[in-house]
Amino acid sequence: MSQKNHKLDIRHLAKSFGQNHVLRDVSFSIDKAESLVIIGGSGTGKSVAIKCILNLLSPDKGQLFFNGEDLLKMSKSAHEDAMKKFGMLFQGAALFDSLSIWENVAFGLLNGTNIKKAAARDIAIARLQDVGLSEDIAFSYPAELSGGMKKRVGLARAIATDPEVIFFDEPTTGLDPIMCSVIDTLIIKCVRKLGATALTITHDMASVRRIADKVAMLHDGKIIWHGAVKEMDTTDNPYVKQFIHGDLKGPITNK
Question: Cβ distance 196 to 168 under 8 Å?
C-alpha cells in the first residue's frame, strides 16, 4: 500500500521502445491538492510518464498508486472508475473539430456518465465561464477559435468532470507571454477551486515558477532532483542549474 497522504505515488516506473529505454526508474509522489511540475529536455520521457499513468501506454514495470491503490493491479471496472477521476489538458488542446465547443467540454460527461444532454450542456457552459469564455462561444466550433481560446476550452474540458487529479501537458506551448500568464492564472484558479492535485510537464520556466508547489527534473530516464519550487534556484544540482538558466555548457548535451 502507498502512503495514504499521497494522491499519486509512482514507484520505479520503466518504459522502453525497443532499445530506447525512455523511462528507466522513475519514482515520485504528489500529495492531495499539491501542484508538481516535471521539467526536463525534449525527449526525456515526460509525456511517456503521464501516458503510462493514464493507461495510454503500458509500463514495462513499476507501481502506480492512486489513493493508495495500485492502478496496475485493479480490476477492469475499478480501473475504469479510477480513470474517471483524472482530467487532462493536452498540449494542442486536442479538440474534436466536428463537435461544438460545449460538446467538446462535455465529452467526458456525455461518454462516461449517465447525465442528460441538457444538464451536460449547462455544466459545459459553466466551466467555459470559469475559464473566462462567454456562453456564446459554447455553440461555436474549434476552427473559429484562436490558440489561446482553444487552450481555455481544453482547460474547461479537463475540469468538467470535477477530477481529483489533472494533468497538464505543456499548457503554454505556442502562446505569447501574456496569454501564458493568463493560462497559468486560470490553471491555479481552477485547480484550487476543485481542490485537485496537479501534475504538469513544461519547458516554460516562468510558468513553472507561477504554478508549481514542487518541481522534479527528469533526465536519462530517472528523477534526478525533486524539491520545493523555491529551492530550484539555489540547488547545487548541475543539471537543474543548466536547464533552468538555459546554459550551453554543463552536463546536459544535445544529442
Answer: no
Distance from the Cα of residue 113 to its chain's centroid? 22
CB 95 within 8 A of CB 153: yes
Per residue in 101-148, pLDDT (tens digit) is 999 999 988 887 788 999 999 999 999 999 999 999 999 999 999 888
Distance CA 247, CA 242 (A): 5
Let me know how long the chain is. 255
Q: What backbone torsions phi and psi does residue 198 show, to the nearest 5 degrees?
A: -125, 135
Q: Which of 94, 125, 93, 98 is nearest to 109 (CA)?
A: 125
Q: Which residue has the cell 466536428?
A: 98
- Strands 86-89 and 69-70, bridge-based pairing: unpaired
pLDDT tens by residue, 218-232: 998 999 999 999 999
Rounded Cα distance between 118 and 130, Å, is: 19
Within 8 A by CB and 6+ apart from 27, the residues are 10, 11, 12, 13, 223
pTM equals 0.90
158 phi and psi, to 5 degrees? Answer: -65, -30
At residue 135, φ and ψ (nearest 5 deg) are: -60, -30
Cell of 230: 523555491
